[in-house]
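INSTRUCTION: Work out how this chain folds

Token vocabulary: learned, describes local backbone geometry

RECORD BEGINS BELOW THIS LINE
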Amino acid sequence: MRYLLSIACALLVACGGRDDAPPAPNRPAPTWPSAIELNVAKIEIATGHSNAALVKLTRARDRVLRAWGDHDPRLALYDDALATALRARGKLRDAKQRSDQSLALREAAFGRDSALVATSLLGRAQSEIEGGELAKASEDLRHARAIDPHIPTVDVLLATADPFAGVAQAGSDDDPAVAAAVGEKLLAAGDKAGATRVLKAAVAQLGEEPTRTALRIYIALARASGDPQAARAAISAYQAMPELERSAEDEMWAISRR
């Protein structure tokens, strides 16, 4: 993944990913550098570098905005990616606002029954699940499934919103945010073994960057398994994100000393 990131960044530089040259008369500025930055940013998010991705995505979206105006549906591509990066940073309200913007752009351009609208609904549902708004998430997911019954992610996320209706399927998903929600609900239901299985698999999907999702996974795993290493990882995440509320920190210190 790091190799792909280095290639993508080199391509962006080689292709002159700048937007300061004036466009030709009566023609919009070229926006192809934005597409390259979008793909580089997606790699950065996947490798745990969401802050760098946010910078690129904001710049890329602004370039498209200047070229095509604030109603162009291409902007939704950048809003989707920005929502993903913001979720990785634990900024769920901002992420949901980006998904709302993506949804509005696509509904206006393509109508409420477009498969692209379903994509926006999926992104918003992920933020709602992480924020504990499970009823809203379920509503968005059922709307997305009504639009496109063949989206495989929908059933996985629905199982997250209602984990007792398909936990095994949700536990196989490779999205750490989904696994965190499933693991927490299994733990709350008293299924420590099931929670441990789901959460250990999620740890393998985490990037290097400390995030709110990673913290949730480590806390739930420490509670489910009593693993001191998971507790120490949670403590490290707390220390890296001092702005977060720290209600479980004392508990993690106690588990870490076992």
